[in-house]
Amino acid sequence: MQIALQAWRDNAPSRPRAIQASSLLAAVTEAESFPELYPFRCNRELIDVQENFRLFSFEGTIFVAKRSRDEKASGECVNAIVAKERLENCPLIPIVPRLLHTQNGIWLVSRYFGKTLHEEQYNVRMLSTETLSNLLLTLRQAGLEWKGLAPRNLIPICGKKFYAIDWEDLIVHDNANISWTPLSKMTIALNWARQFRDPESALSFVCDHVGSDSVERPLDDFELAFKAVSVLSVPDTVTRDICQSITFGSEAPVVGQDIRILSPQEVGHIVTDLFGSPLDVLYAAVATKFRRMHGDHAFKQFLVFFTHNVEGALLCQEGQTVEKRVEWLNFRAALAMLVLFDDETNWDIQEGTETNTVSSPVITSIEKVRTLHTKVGIHAAAERSRAVLHIITAIWNACCASFDWGAHFQLLLRGSISQHLMTVRSDIDFEISSCNNPLGCEHLERFVCSLLSFLMLNAEGSWARPREQDIS
User: Fold this and answer.
1) Residue 42, pLDDT score
2) Of 33, 140, 454, 462, which has the fewest Cβ atoms less than 10 A away?
């Protein structure tokens, strides 16, 4: 795992092993069977704890293989073929992967063409706005709305030409004048925000090239997730504005980014990859509030803390099962995210160094619960209850501040935690209810339970308890 970290930190070159096999399918099957021999390097954009990628050499050519689901794999191949047909003799050269079926899975396999712009962005100059302008105009003229236009999907060839990978997110238009969707424009703006003063300037640049909205668009998945957990009764246009604000607020680049530390956008991607929605919505809202209150110097300290937690998880994973590696990485990332929820967190980080001391009551509480994992007795039960109460209170306060829960709902604690005596077998038994939801609001309770589960805490909302019935 040290090698993986060095590749992330120092951008060390990969040295793929050669496979002797009768065919490319046989080579992929061999690589699939021995992930420890053919790993794809861990880098800033890809932390492959689930072993979904392989890198190997076959008949003198280096290949990269990505495990995928059937419907996604075939869709990505079709999209890449369409893009290649429409972008003939253009500066973007789409890579069309081969779809190979092994006995245990489906793999997208293509030749490995080298490091992406994302991996090299701190070592070479970023694209000029003229080159980015040319790429956007090329895509629009071809009728290709590609949300994946990002440094992580472009591999420089020479001059202003690029291999383009990962065509999963593609919308094909028959009319080149159709304006692109808000999600595509916002995503592309964030992908290239380092070249501009801020994401808003990048978005304005993108809209100048691919059109501004003239019609209402359906809410995307992130916006729908926000609407589901927020109790704000606002039109969809306001929901979209809020979601853009918290996305830009949490993922906008910081000035003086340390190349050894994950960027705001990279942290946002990790949170989404690990936890999905709507937890990534909560992170975006809390991180935006933190940056506005404390400034980017404090936020850079959080980035250091998050990076060290992710690296700490990777360092502890050698010899572990995939399930254990994922569980531990989820825990460390959730722990790092949780410090933003705690207004009492005290940061003491020496800028320009790797010294990182964070004093946070919520972290202390989580560590307390872990040390009491096997402890029995009334003293341990009382300590465990106090620690868990602090954790769930921090989560509740963050949700109230982000989604206005406090004005409409109440948090009720039940069972052993309400009696301040949690045993080693106790769950966190709670209810989020209101006058309109007297038996509890299931989707909000599930939301809180999911975050607690990533922190390795068992919880049960009112929806999971048996209902009392009058049998007379």
Assistant:
1) 66
2) 33
